[in-house]
Structure of Hydrolase (Hydroxyacylglutathione hydrolase) 11:
Amino acid sequence: MSGPNRPDAADDQSRAHRLEFTVDWPPGHAAAYLLAGDEPILIDAGMAGEQGRAELIDGLDSHGYVPEDIDHLLLTHSHTDHVGQIEALLEAGDPTVHAPTRIRERFARDIETVEAATRRNLAEAGVDPAYIESAIDRLLEAHESNRDALTLEAVDVWFDGDEPIRVGNQEFDPIYTPGHHVTHHCYGTTLGDERVVFAGDMAVEPFRAAAIHVNFDDGVRDCVLAFIDALERLQRYDFDRVYPGHGPVHERYHETVERSIADLEDRIDGCADALEGREETTTATELADELTDSFGERARVLPEIVGALEYLEREGAVRSRLEDGVRYYESA
């Protein structure tokens, strides 16, 4: 093992060391966390690409480690900014990779099935047929980049449910938290005298991660309901410190969870208000055009708007009809 730069061992094992990776979207970084000890653990694996590889090596080196020192890798979810350097870690050493079974379930589906569902759901959302092919290409590229970064063969230990798991010498409490992504888990544990949570893309300061969930695969209409359920599940826990995948480490656990719920409720209310008093039915895409200022923003929030409309329909505030593969909404 590498070691000249390491702090006192007892102090080192009572805290998490943060490694940052550059990404091309706000806030400009993703974070992974190193837990020292007899069996060093890395929580998430950073951004894909050569720059991500260099940042992994530099980040570990700043704490006196090299990639081959990592004995265990624990994953929050399967986005490329969180699993991007798994290959580099496996090339350097032999870490035991721990991941939720929901990742295996998603990746077991063939890409043709994902493509067919994506095409159907984009059409149902009212996306202009002229843009559907380019949207499918973009969304399938995201699916495939996730799968390329995290092959099923790379995972040694699959776990399911919310039962405690042991990773090396550390016990974690997995908390299933979909919405941002259908595979997403947070992990509660104890470091020193603190209860902490490795939150991935939940409980982030100062923003809420988008309700990507499944992109436009089947399940897109459940994204907002799943996100709210996940946040309400998190409300039942207490943590002294949050180690998020983006934004700063902070001590405002309940405040960030409650703010995220309020932000999703604002999205739901915005959709309800946009439908109120409208004489004609409309599609999710038409609503997105009205509620956003740019094409990029519309593409980012369109799944949320589909999910918000589904939430309102289940609440009886909205009704819809499917006509020639396109879903039209009106206030109830």
The domain at 9-331 is CATH 3.60.15.10 (Metallo-beta-lactamase; Chain A).
